[in-house]
Amino acid sequence: MLKALDPPVGSLDEFVRQVLPADILSSRDLKIDGPAIRTKNGEQGRFSKEGFTESQLLARLRDVASGNKVFRSYIGCGYAGTRVPEVIKRNVLESPGWYTSYTPYQPEISQGRLESLLNFQTMVCDLTGLSISNASVLDEATAAAEAMTLSMNALPAARQRRPKKVYLVSHLCHPQTIAVLESRASGFGITIEVGDVLANDGKRVEDVGEDLVGVLVQYPDTEGGVEDFKGLSEKIHNLKATFCVATDLLALTVLTPPGEFGADVAFGNAQRFGVPFGYGGPHAAFFAC
Description:
32% helix, 8 strands, two-stranded antiparallel sheet, alpha/beta, PyrdxlP-dep_Trfase, EC 1.4.4.2
C-alpha cells in the first residue's frame, strides 16, 4: 500500500509525517502497556511491551472498573435506574430474525428495523390508550413543545390569532419540561402559565376561556404523585382545547392509560424501558395522540 502512494513512501512513520502538520505531530514514542509476564516460579515479573490481546484487555478493564464506587442516583425528574432482563435483551434487542438474511438479496436490517419500530409504536398505543403513535422524538421536554404547538394548530384560525393565548402547565411537571416550553412558546405568541391546574376544581381553565390553547399535566408527576384528571379533561374539552399528558411508559403498565381519562396527547421518554442513565439524557421520547 505504501509503494502504491504517489509519491511512494518507505514506512508508515514517513507517511504520517507527510500527512500531519509538524506542529501537532508528537515526537514521543507511544507507550504500550501489556500484561505482566510471570517468572518460572509464578511471581509477577516485568510487563510485556507487546500490548494486550482482546481477552487480556477485557480482563484488565474489568479489574480497573472494579475500583469504581457505584452510588444511588437522585437525579429524579423522569429518570430512574434501570435493568433490562436478559430474556428481553436477547429476544428483542438481539433477535437474529431482525438482522440475519435468509436469502442473500433481502435487506433484513431494514426490515428488522421497521418491525422493531412497529412493535414500539404498537406498545405505545396500547399503554397510552391512544390510537396513533410515532416511532421516536428527541426527548420528553421537546416532545412537550411539540404537544403545545400541535394544540395551537388544532384551534380554529380565529383563536390561533388571539393576542393573549395561554397554555396552562401543571407546576408538578418536570422543571426541564417547563423550561423548554417557556423558550419555545415565545416564538408563537403563547403565554406559559405554570400553576396548580386542579385547584378549585380546575377553575383556572374556565377563567382563561377562549384564550386557552391547551393544558399539560404530568402523570405520575415530578414528585411521584398520581392524580385523577377526568374532571379536568371535561372542562378542557368544553372549551375545545387540547389536553396533553406527560407520562411514563413503565408506570402505564399499572396505571389507567391517559386515553381512558380524556387525554388528546400523551408523551414522555423511554428511559424507564431500560436505557441507562447516560449522565442525565436526553433519552428518546414517544408521542401518541
